[in-house]
């Protein structure tokens, strides 16, 4: 039956998809099958992400295929084949080994989208070190916090980022043994080494050592509402899910030109901006430039991008430019457009169908899940506004919520899964390969994320009677701004380091483009006047400390709502600001 609120797919497109029959795939799929589709290290020596992404292609018939096509800011193009990527990452792994960096030690990157970043990420994994990518727009505070928590042994960055972000905090990082600088002028800074000199002297040949699929590979930081950022640890086995989900949810194939616009400093930019397309053997595109509507359309058209994975904020920014800009470009190569990270409005899905010639396929996952869990599929109709259905191999559920808004967990540890059409906390049956294996140094927090065999996501979702999932809101106070998760506590702490600030409450305010904007409410110390100058100073203070996650607005407020124990009640603050009852907040999130 044809439904007006559904976007139907043409039969020819359905027939060509990787996942033609969703129900059958859900019945027949097993993670063992997905594991068998990968090579594994020669001689049964285990499973290593970088071997699957690079070395097996570099040693096979795809050696000459372009692995990375990189566009620099000025329009220059650099193509790196799988063979060359094998050599470059081999050199990087040899540099690490030569410096005495041991498997399991943490290597951090603080880099924009440049070839050295991709080489460092994959070379680190080859050397069996743990990779932690940092967002290069972070200010010194979030970087110091994350490098300290993860005991960074090595950092790869540029001279400019070193001066701006690392030099002011270097004395807070005693575990940091090596800073490797890339790019021009990468010499002369005390306590650093020049990466290209080291790489030039190293051998391109590197044999990946035995890697247990359960060995730690990636450390991604994510934000909660209280305390420090959480370091979610992922293992090499995650590559099984990267590969399978890239095939199912992104419909990726070897002949695709794939563009993931997420920055590699965030989980999407690593799992799908680096690992997934390479494991598939496709060509991945990386654009050093920042968002610009005309530039993006040009990239899509000129590079003949076939699969595009982006974010709702970006789609909304393109929508604002109107359809004329899109019409000037030949987007006929596009086969699939997908987005993740924030709610995708139904209008944006339909706009894609009309203006890009392809509807936007929403999908859902989070740092902890390591890979896409719920998705719209190339061969399936789309219900605009729905995140889609669970992937083959993923068992999703909704759990009844308790008075605190989170899943109700009985004294004996039991939970209450809801049947049929329902709304509750979104939960996933534990055990898929890319599930995080721990929060760094915080086993209690990790244990608290599970109940009765379910991983509790912290998101509230609704399921319709056909099993499609719809995002409702977060069960906590974390902020999603332009697709980036921002921990209010981290922002509050940074502001409270200013001598004029007694207390701060930070919330996300609805924004038509970015989803939410970070806004801080600040109580000043006694006797300090709330002037415009002070507001400007605090905004600058926040920006210098936090970088891209700093508050965009600051209001003075000496009546912040508190719990009895004295904590700022952010939900109440938000409800107050929006003129809503607290219970109406989730309604706001759906209709936003
Ligand atoms: P992160 O761990 O930074 O990737 O953020 C994960 C969070 O982003 C999820 O828990 C959701 O709150 C939100 N999110 C991710 N994908 C979607 C989506 N498709 N729709 C709505 N929210 C999403």
TrEMBL record:
Keyword terms of this UniProt record: Acetylation, ATP-binding, Ligase, Nucleotide-binding
Protein's UniProt keywords contain Acetylation: yes
EC number: 6.2.1.1
Membrane spanning stretches: none
GO molecular function terms attached to this record: acetate-CoA ligase activity
ATP-binding keyword on record: yes
Record Gene3D superfamilies: 3.30.300.30, N-terminal domain of ligase-like (3.40.50.12780)
AMP-binding enzyme C-terminal domain span: 490-567
Record-annotated AMP-dependent synthetase/ligase domain positions: 57-440
Top-level class of the enzyme under EC nomenclature: ligase
This protein's name: acetate--CoA ligase
Natural source organism: Pseudonocardia acidicola
Organism taxonomic ancestry: Bacteria, Bacillati, Actinomycetota, Actinomycetes, Pseudonocardiales
């Amino acid at each position: 039956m044809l439904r007006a609120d559904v976007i139907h797919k043409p039969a020819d497109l359905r027939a060509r998809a990787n996942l033609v029959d969703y129900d059958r795939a859900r019945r027949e799929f097993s993670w063992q099958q997905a594991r068998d589709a990968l090579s594994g290290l020669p001689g049964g020596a285990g499973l290593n992400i970088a071997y699957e992404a690079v070395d097996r292609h570099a040693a096979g018939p795809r050696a000459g295929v372009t692995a990375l096509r990189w566009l620099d800011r000025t329009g220059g193009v650099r193509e790196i084949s799988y063979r060359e990527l094998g050599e470059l990452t081999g050199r990087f792994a040899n540099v690490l080994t030569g410096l005495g960096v041991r498997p399991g030690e943490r290597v951090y990157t603080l880099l924009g989208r440049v070839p050295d970043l991709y080489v460092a990420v994959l070379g680190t994994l080859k050397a069996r070190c743990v990779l932690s990518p940092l967002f290069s727009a972070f200010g010194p505070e979030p970087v110091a916090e994350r490098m300290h928590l993860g005991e960074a042994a090595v950092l790869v960055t540029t001279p400019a980022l070193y001066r701006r972000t690392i030099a002011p905090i270097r004395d807070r990082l005693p575990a940091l043994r090596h800073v490797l600088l890339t790019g021009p002028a990468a010499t002369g800074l005390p306590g650093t080494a020049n990466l290209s000199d080291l790489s030039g002297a190293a051998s391109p040949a590197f044999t990946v050592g035995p890697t247990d699929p359960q060995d730690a590979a990636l450390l991604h930081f994510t934000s909660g509402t209280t305390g420090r950022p959480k370091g979610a640890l992922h293992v090499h086995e995650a590559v099984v899910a990267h590969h399978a989900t890239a095939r199912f949810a992104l419909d990726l194939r070897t002949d695709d030109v794939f563009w993931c616009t997420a920055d590699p400093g965030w989980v999407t930019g690593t799992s799908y901006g680096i690992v997934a397309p390479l494991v598939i053997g496709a060509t991945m595109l990386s654009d050093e430039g920042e968002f610009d509507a005309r530039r993006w359309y040009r990239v899509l058209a000129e590079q003949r991008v076939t699969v595009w994975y982006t974010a709702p904020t970006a789609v909304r920014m393109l929508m604002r430019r109107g359809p004329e800009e899109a019409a000037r470009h030949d987007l006929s190569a596009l086969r699939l457009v997908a987005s993740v990270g924030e709610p995708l409005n139904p209008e944006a899905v339909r706009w894609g169908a009309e203006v890009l010639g392809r509807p936007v396929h929403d999908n859902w996952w989070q740092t902890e899940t390591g890979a896409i869990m719920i998705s719209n599929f190339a061969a399936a109709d789309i219900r605009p506004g729905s995140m889609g259905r669970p992937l083959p191999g993923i068992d999703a559920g909704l759990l009844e919520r308790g008075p605190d808004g989170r899943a109700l967990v009985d004294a004996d540890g039991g939970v209450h899964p809801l049947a049929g059409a329902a709304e509750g906390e979104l939960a996933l049956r534990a055990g898929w390969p890319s599930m995080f294996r721990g929060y760094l140094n915080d086993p209690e927090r990790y244990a608290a994320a599970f109940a009765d065999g379910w991983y509790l996501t912290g998101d509230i979702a609704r399921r319709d009677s056909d099993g499609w999932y719809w995002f409702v809101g977060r069960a906590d106070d974390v902020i999603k701004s332009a697709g980036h998760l921002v921990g209010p506590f981290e922002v509050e702490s940074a502001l409270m380091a200013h001598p004029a600030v007694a207390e701060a409450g930070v919330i996300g305010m609805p924004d038509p483009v970015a989803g939410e904007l970070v806004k801080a409410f600040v109580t000043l110390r006694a006797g300090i006047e709330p002037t415009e100058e002070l507001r400007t100073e605090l905004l600058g203070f926040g920006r210098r400390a936090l970088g891209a996650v700093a508050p965009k607005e600051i209001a003075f407020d000496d009546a912040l709502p508190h719990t009895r124990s004295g904590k700022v009640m952010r939900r109440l603050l938000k409800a107050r600001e929006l003129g809503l009852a607290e219970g109406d907040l989730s309604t706001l999130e759906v209709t936003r």
